[in-house]
Amino acid sequence: MAEQPTRNAPGERIAKVIARAGLASRREAEAWITAGRVSVNGAVISSPALNVTPTDQIAVDGEPLRARERTRLFLYHKPRGLVTTHSDPEGRDTIFRALPKGLPRLISVGRLDINTEGLLLLTNDGGLARILELPATGWVRRYRVRALGRVRQETLDRLRGGITLGGVHYGAIEATLDREQGANVWLTLAIREGKNREVRKVLESLGLKVNRLIRVGFGPFDLGELDDGSVKEIETSEIRAKLGDQIIVDAGADLDAPLVSEDALQRMRRHGEARARETRPSGATQEEISRHSRRPRKKNFHRRDRTGGPRPSRPRPK
């Protein structure tokens, strides 16, 4: 194997560059590097701990890495009963298996748990996803909630000052009692932090049991009339207008790069998969190879509770 290049100058991690080209996730790209499938300036590398600059010549399986694709953003109406992940060790259905065909490789901006439905942003740009899901971005998450029980508006108004539960502080919450329906109430909530199961935990502290949770807005984007399970791409001009220059710069998003056809991407991926089968150790799967490249999880790490059932019908407006 050729000697690995060294790099002290600024740049981006090579796995990130490969991911932004649309070929794989960053984790998959790290696995490719470990398997010796990536070269930089003619030298095969074995460690993803390398920064590269635009002047470096990167190749995957001997094929030059294409220019990164234009940053794209999509609205997705997530149905209830799907996990927001690319793969699930428990074998549950995921949003990425349910997406319509012909889309680029996408990642989600944050997550919605399996029992939550509604608006989820998807993008092909990991840098943009990380910026948009940060609480520091200050984007409001808006929800419609159906919950079993009764509550007074005066009680909901006290949530504007935030609430601490089990040692966890939740910031200001705007909550409105919309109507009562049988044994249930319908509420509208607006939060900025989006902590794990925040809406459910806060309402449980008020004696309410959430039985339907729909995200209807995220920052400047609304669910609108988007059908359950449908995807809508946001025009580049709208991305510029709604994100603003600062977010675009901070994310390193590129809204001027060309689009690459999905057929071209699929050809490149198939070539890479064929090459991986040729170089894979006997009996090893790509998942097993990828697993060895993953960072070890911290102890006492627990996955979110994502059990749930089929999606009920859309609520009627008042």
Describe the structure.
The chain is of the alpha+beta class and 318 residues long. The chain has two domains: 92 residues, RNA-binding S4 domain (Structural Genomics Hypothetical 15.5 Kd Protein In mrcA-pckA Intergenic Region, Chain A, Roll); 177 residues, Pseudouridine synthase (2-Layer Sandwich), CATH 3.30.2350.10. Helix content is 26%, strand content 24%. It contains nine helices and 17 strands. Strands 7, 8, 9, 10, 13, 14, 15, 16 and 17 form a nine-stranded mixed sheet that branches. It has a four-stranded antiparallel sheet with strand order 3-2-5-6, with no helix packed on it. A two-stranded antiparallel ribbon has the order 1-4. A hairpin with a 2-residue loop joins β11 and β12. α1 packs across α2, α2 packs across α9 and α4 crosses α7. The longest helix has 18 residues. The protein is elongated.
Could you tell me the number of beta strands? Answer: 17
CATH architecture of the largest domain: 2-Layer Sandwich
How would you describe the shape?
elongated
Enumerate the spans where pLDDT stays under 50 for 5 or more consecutive residues: 1-8, 281-314
CATH topology of the largest domain: Pseudouridine synthase
Helical content stands at 25-40%
- Helix-strand topology string: EHHEEEEEEHEEHEHEEEEHEEEHHH
Q: For the terminal residues, how far apart are their CA atoms?
A: 68 Å
**Average of the residue pLDDT scores:** 82
- Helix/strand class: alpha+beta
The H-level CATH homologous superfamily of the largest domain, spelled out, is: Pseudouridine synthase
Rg (CA only):
22 Å
Summarize the biggest pleated sheet. 9 strands, mixed
Question: What fraction strand?
Answer: 15-25%
Under the CATH scheme, which class of the largest domain? Answer: Alpha Beta
Total tally of structural domains: 2
Q: Helix count?
A: 9
